[in-house]
Amino acid sequence: MDRIITLITDFGTADGYVGAMKGVIL
């Protein structure tokens, strides 16, 4: 979970957040 948060923070964009969410779902 921490890794996902790090990715979202790294991207800092809605696209990055959506990409992370899709990664979790898939």
Account of the protein in words:
- By secondary structure, this protein is mostly helical.
- The chain has one domain.
- 85% of the residues lie in helices and 0% in strands.
- It is built from two helices and no strands.
- It has helices at 2-11, 14-25.
- Helix 1 (2-11) packs antiparallel against helix 2.
- It is flat.
How far do the termini sit from each other?
A: 15 Å
Domain count: the total is: 1
pLDDT averaged residue by residue: 66
Number of strands: 0
- Structural class comes to mainly alpha
Low-confidence stretches: none
* Fraction of residues in helix: over 70%
Strand residue content: under 5%
Radius of gyration: 8 Å
Number of continuous helical runs? 2
Shape: flat
Tell me the series of helices and strands, N- to C-terminal.
HH
The largest pleated sheet is described as: none
Write the layout of secondary structure elements.
Layout: H1 2-11, H2 14-25
Helix pairs in contact: 1-2
List its traits.
single chain; 0% strand; flat
How would you sum up this structure in a few lines?
The chain has 26 residues and is an all-alpha fold. It has helices at 2-11, 14-25.
